[in-house]
Specification:
Structural class of chain A: alpha/beta
Radius of gyration of chain A: 22 Å
Largest sheet of chain B: none
Strand content of chain B: under 5%
Shape of chain B: extended
Oligomer: heterodimer
Number of strands of chain A: 6
Strand content of chain A: 5-15%
């Protein structure tokens, strides 16, 4: 097939090829190697450095559309904090997210940590409209911004919220996000104003925007997309859905790279025939 | 690889079946637009609208506006203070009448002659967000990033020094590429071409990450179909 024939190729053949390349390794895993990159290793170090038993603020700002990338991060980070006996206070600034986050956290807590109690060891404060305004309001008092948790409990009555005031109550902020409002806004409104140490996990499409924050140490660690989630799972000796998806991810990337090369060869060949 | 289909007899299993069938309906669009895709699309829009109305009421309007106002009208104090307008930082009780009325004014857009009143709450919203964004950006992106850019070129370690030099060259040449007060010829032309090279690398990285994100979504759906619905992979 001439490279020029690619121009007339029905795009549905490409969809089919990508579909098969993704499906095959999910059915028959290839176990391609996976390495922990420096930003992920820094994330793990920052989480390890949290004093055991601390209260940690974890903001899960995403909705179901980003599930394959950010839910594995949420699971591993939540397990990481539970293993350290931390008290995890979860907020959600995306309107499509609170139900999903509640299900993820509840499943892990009930199945893997039966001794951990809701309202004592972890709480889901749920969704609050207002984006940056909520972040600033939380600085004046978490309880004022969230008078009720996601399940309708009065937050002032929850043992985990006793002694919690503003951001100074937390040794670290864990932001897992898939866009606006998310990590960028937490850095702008909270990290830079309240100087709270912060780590982030983000969808791959938004991760490049956050690397400058990593360079400047405004973020202590960063998980970028499914690859970041898989590396975090590897560092924690877990084999979650991100790890299982990485073979498919690699094959799809090889295919996209091949398409780019073939497309460029086709274009170069076309230009050569038509002259300068 | 024996299939273990999600049971149709439980609420969770039924949810998985509905999710799986709707996923297939959406995937059918890859072949061409069709009624199955349209059904899934319209269902999504309708369910989302209902979900958001309920969510906003129970998570924001009820606990943050309605309940504090009820307490204020009932005379419940804030800590030791009493009275309709008793308040403390972050808990403004009766004062919430002001944002409440401003919120209602947004709906005047539906009533022709008094529609101009909706501009007042919009002005407040824009003013607040401009203020928050400006100060946030100045602190985190302008000052902090400029500060982090000022780094020694020789750190005593070859690898980190090369990193610092590449970073500095990329920063300076990229900035000069956006200097349009002089024609990009001569020395400035060379430097701006190097800047383009760095910009292209960043666009390429961005594209690669975008591909990873989109492929991840496909993987997620396939994992759902294979693991949760068909039970082929565990």
């Amino acid at each position: 097939m001439s490279p020029l024939a690619l121009e007339k190729l029905d795009r549905r053949w490409i969809f089919l090829a990508v579909g098969l390349l993704v499906l095959f390794p999910l059915l028959f895993p290839l176990a391609l190697p996976l390495y922990v990159s420096p930003p992920v290793a820094a994330f793990v170090r920052a989480m390890d450095a949290i004093p055991n038993g601390s209260k940690v603020l974890m903001s899960c700002d995403y909705d179901p559309s980003a599930t394959p990338e950010v839910v594995p991060m949420t699971r591993t980070a939540f397990r990481h904090l539970m293993d350290k006996d931390c008290k995890v206070i979860i907020t959600v600034l995306w309107n499509g997210g609170p139900g999903l986050v509640d299900r993820v956290v509840r499943q892990i807590a009930e199945k893997e940590y039966p001794n951990k109690k809701y309202g004592v060891d972890y709480v889901n404060l749920g969704y609050k409209a207002g984006e940056e305004a909520v972040m600033v309001l939380m600085g004046q008092g978490i309880l004022n911004a969230f008078p009720q948790d996601y399940r309708g409990n009065d937050t002032r009555s929850l043992p985990i919220m006793q002694g919690v005031r503003g951001y100074s109550s937390f040794p670290i902020l864990v932001s897992i996000s898939s866009g606006y409002p998310g990590t960028k806004e937490w850095v702008q409104q909270v990290q830079s104003r309240f100087h709270i140490p912060m780590v982030a996990g983000a969808t791959a499409v938004s991760a490049p925007e956050y690397y400058p924050y990593l360079q400047s140490h405004q973020l202590l660690g960063l998980l970028g997309g499914m690859a970041g989630a898989a590396e975090y799972e590897k560092a924690r000796h877990e084999k979650g859905s991100a790890t299982r998806g990485m073979d498919a991810q690699s094959l799809a990337h090889y295919f996209v790279a091949l398409c780019i090369v073939l497309g460029n060869v086709g274009m170069w060949s076309k230009r050569r025939r038509s002259g300068p | 690889m024996t299939p273990h289909l999600a049971p149709l007899t439980t609420a969770d299993g039924l949810g998985v079946w509905i999710g799986a069938l709707l996923t297939l309906c959406v995937f059918s669009f890859l072949y061409k637009d069709n009624p199955f895709y349209k059904v899934a699309e319209h269902l999504f829009v309708g369910v989302s609208a209902g979900y958001y109305i309920i969510l906003y009421w129970w998570t924001s309007l009820y606990p943050n506006l309605y309940q504090p106002l009820v307490k204020a009208f009932a005379g419940h104090g804030v800590t030791a203070r009493t009275g309709f307008l008793a308040a403390e930082q972050g808990d403004y009780r009766g004062w919430l009448m002001i944002p409440g009325v401003l919120g209602l004014l947004l709906f005047t857009r539906f009533f022709g002659r008094i529609g101009w009143l909706s501009r007042w709450p919009l002005a407040v919203i824009i003013g607040v967000y401009v203020g928050l964004q400006t100060t946030g950006f100045a602190q985190s992106d302008l000052v902090a990033q400029a500060q982090a850019s000022m780094q020694p070129l020789w750190t005593g370690n070859l690898a980190t020094s090369v990193n610092a030099i590449v970073f500095t060259v990329g920063l300076v040449t990229s900035l000069l590429f956006f200097f349009f007060s002089r024609e990009h010829r001569g020395g400035l032309g060379v430097v701006s071409k190097i800047g383009i090279f760095f910009l292209m690398v960043s666009f390429g990285a961005g594209y690669g990450y975008t591909v990873m994100s989109r492929v991840s979504l496909l993987i997620g759906r396939f994992q759902f179909l294979l693991e949760d619905w068909l039970g082929i992979v565990r």
